[in-house]
Amino acid sequence: MTKSTAEAKPPKLGAKWRRLAERRCAAANARLTPARLGAYAELLASKRPVTAYELIARLEESQQRKIAPLTVYRHLDFLIQVGLVHRLESTQSYLPCDHPEHTHESQYLLCSSCGAADEVESKPLESLLNTIADQRGFRAENTVVEIKGLCKTCKSDDSD
Ligand SMILES: [Zn+2]
Ligand SMILES: [Zn+2]
User: What's the whole-model pTM score?
Assistant: First the structure.
């Protein structure tokens, strides 16, 4: 028995997340295929955002087969579209939404030490940014707020 055999199992998706995923797909009139669900479960199992290539490697390891990168990109596009997954622009990585019950804009606190991403949904910040754009006659299409720094845990490890 080797360690890698134990790790090479596809992650299980918790009942709560499965229900949320089914609801989002139903609302979007889209089908939640096993492959889409597999990619979503893999993202949920990760402690930090992963790049598409990291996700491909994880899926290949847990499913013990080659997976075409394009397929995984399609799954990611789908998961983003239905609101289950978000994409971080600054690191070109993906993370599951904390609260996919409703569509929303998000802001992120990204730890540069451990790689953790904290999703924040601040309505006041969102409307402030829209107001600023409006005042300048600018039509905002895609607002990205990603704050880099140290998370609570890493910050306290840092200070001695
Ligand atoms: Zn979200
Ligand atoms: Zn950290």
Answer: 0.87
